[in-house]
């Protein structure tokens, strides 16, 4: 039986997380998706997530299988939504899931569901019942992960990143009850 759980990332996890991010960038490129192809996320982004204690890793049988950042409060990238709207009060706080990726060694094992479940639990423990997430318009695999985990499509956002060429993202929202 496989043992899996989510925990906060530590500085010692940095090499494994950077490898997973690198693999994810290559995987997106192979699929012709230009998400994460202009430098983002940088090594410094990941280091900052760990320092701010918002970086999490999915552990499977003692190995780091996946990574994600769970941002508290408002995300400026979600301020302006096109062709849609957010549910709820605009002043409500929420958590955002960013930089989610699985190791190529664990891809295809439906572990993203375990990752999401862990992130949902952490969010509620921190007092948040609303989550937001976004992905590239061509990233069908991530869109499926997002909707299969209960998120509702809300519209398109224009991601703020001067290095990215294609900044449009599908935006999703989930309320935990």
From TrEMBL:
It holds the Pfam family Acetyltransf_1. This is Acetyltransferase. PROSITE patterns: GNAT (PS51186). InterPro entries: Acyl_CoA_acyltransferase (IPR016181), GNAT_dom (IPR000182). Keywords: Transferase. GO terms for molecular function: acyltransferase activity, transferring groups other than amino-acyl groups. The keyword Cell wall biogenesis/degradation does not apply. SUPFAM superfamilies: Acyl-CoA N-acyltransferases (Nat).
């Amino acid at each position: 039986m496989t043992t899996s759980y989510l925990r906060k990332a530590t500085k010692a996890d940095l090499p494994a997380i950077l490898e997973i991010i690198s693999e994810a960038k290559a995987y997106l490129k192979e699929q012709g998706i230009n998400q994460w192809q202009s430098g983002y996320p940088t090594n410094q982004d990941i280091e900052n997530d760990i320092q701010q204690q918002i970086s999490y890793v999915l552990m499977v049988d003692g190995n780091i299988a996946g990574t994600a950042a769970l941002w508290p409060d408002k995300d400026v990238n979600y301020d302006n939504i096109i062709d849609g709207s957010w549910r709820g009060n605009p002043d409500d706080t929420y958590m955002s899931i960013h930089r989610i990726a699985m190791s190529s060694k664990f891809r295809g094992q439906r572990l993203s569901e375990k990752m999401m479940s862990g992130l949902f639990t952490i969010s509620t423990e921190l007092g948040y019942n609303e989550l937001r997430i976004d992905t590239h318009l061509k990233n069908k695999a991530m869109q499926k992960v997002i909707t299969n985990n209960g998120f509702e499509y809300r519209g398109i956002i224009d991601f703020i990143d001067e290095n990215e060429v294609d900044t449009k993202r599908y935006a999703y929202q989930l309320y935990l009850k």
